[in-house]
Prior knowledge:
Blueprint: H1 3-28, H2 42-65, H3 74-99, H4 101-104, H5 123-139, H6 142-170, H7 172-180
Helix pairs in contact: 1-2, 1-6, 2-5, 2-6, 3-5, 5-6, 6-7
Amino acid sequence: MSDFASTALIVALVCEVALIVMLIWSILFPKRRLWPPQRVNWLSQLMVWLPTLAVFGAGIAVGLAEWNALDWPLWLRWGAGLPLILAGNAVVWPAALGIGLDATSGAAAELKTDGFYLWSRNPQYVADMGILVGWAILSASPAAWIIAIGGVIAFALAAFAEEPWLEEIYGAPYRTYRKRRPRFFGFPSRQDPDYSV
């Protein structure tokens, strides 16, 4: 691995550890949580977005530096990796834009229960996980896999860290929504009042 790729991997791991510690703290101490932030401002957004973007950027860098180091077949890399990346982007951007940057950064907004939120209470996290895993498959890079695993753990923890806050903010409507929707992914029932597919 080149010095550049080694540095990118270290940056990603430091950022992932910081995010994971922040999220575990928020789960254990919801009244003194760091995520979602007590108050959304430029500093709280920087605290979340900078390490998150660093993880994605470092994943891309190490994946390119170690392109197909695992010597995986093309059909697997392009047949599984690329669809995960494309599907993840097709979900994360409309979901994030649908609730707005402030809400995506942890601010209270209208409770979103339709669109991609019909399939998951956390479609952005699921999509981000898919992008990371898809890139790890496509690049077939051991270092990209290390970053992807850390990212998946962080995104999964984020969902758990948010739940007490969501219940506090939205109350009964959120509790009803939580009973009807899986945390990560599932198919809605035809008996569900929100089912319209």
